[in-house]
Amino acid sequence: MLAGSACDDGEPSAGECPGGARQVVDGGEVALTEASAPSLAGDHVVMLAGAPATAFAVDACTGEATALAGEGLSGAFALTSELGALALGHRQPSGEVLLLDRLDEPGVDEPRVIATLDPIDSGWFRWPDGLLLWSGPLMRDAPGTSRIFAYPGADGPTGAATLVAEDVVWLARGGLDVFVARTASGELLHVHAGAATRVHPHVRSAGMAPDGAQVVWQAAAGGWTLRTLATGVDVQLGAIDAAKIRSAGPDAASWRWTDDAVAAIDADGVLVAAHDRETGARLGLPPPHLAARDDVPGPLLFVTAQVTPERVELAWDPRTGELTEWYRGPDVMLVPQRADDAGVRYLADPGLLWLHRSEGGPALLQAEASLDAIPLADGRTLMGLVNPDETRRLVLLDRTGAHARELADGVSRWSLTADDPPRLAYAIADEPDAGVWIVPISPVSPASISPTDLR
Asked: What does the pLDDT read at residue 44?
């Protein structure tokens, strides 16, 4: 059987496929494996199934499955490209990454190796139409340099990945497909669209905004600079005590970002200075001796005031200088998830979702929550709740976090696309719903948003 973007005569075309949730693979017909999650590119599903594991491409319109060539695969996934949808695979023992098939072309291709990575120290970042791959100890605290590659590269999807740099000691990602890298010699590179552009010849450290819009660095000669990548405009951040700023490395964390501010932290993780992301102007003086937490979308910076005898967490507004206490209690794992006019929403072990209101105390939003929740662009949240048998129950929370809708139960592996709106693909190994399913995450209509959702 052939998988294609258009279905056979007499079948609906890809553009006429059912729009709602649908089963595209019957688990009674194909033995599902947990070796990789089913992934989507257009109207193609790529997955591993059977034992030994075989890569399949499934037409999400008709359910027709094609067994792809390639043995000894550890994983398989889908990408889009200018030439159509692609199926890729990975062999863990050899480190080979392969183009398995051009899904929009008739027939089954012979696999082509697009990159050979270190079998242990390697990996990649994936977005809908590309990969940034690394080979070396880049993502762990270990000495040595790494090579980074872009795919598709200069020769297109059928060619090998393009070597972007080969002496990289630090890499950061912003948004889906924007990266900055620092080499062993201190060269700072902007990596985008399969190519690297020099930002500065010699920096001591650097940081990147989570949205990928800006990069900040300290030049070897001193001074801090903030660049907006889309325009190439630089602003100087003024005097910062460089001795207090931690140096960049594999786990560099010298900066924290809000929607419109960037803050430097010292070697102990304490806030040192905050600046306007547009003008570079110095903002309010940070509260002293407070350790900054990771970036959280919104206007606030989060800091830990104390851990013992009880944990105290605060949110700081760099524009007004206002401090808000959003947690006081036992020392449990906390993950701030969102901050807005309604207050601070946060996840707390052992799986609770809370809202600390702007006025008043905390309110429990969900008695079951996941610390690895995925926020969606429209403000909703997708969570994979763990069942006793280690399968997942997939739940979609509304913008407020107070209302949950179950999407699927008994899920073994799943993936979410970056489409707008996104689509969910998941596998269930056991009856009665065994199979691979696709669920569109329908957009929120303006009529369904209440005034309380916008507060």
From this structure: 94
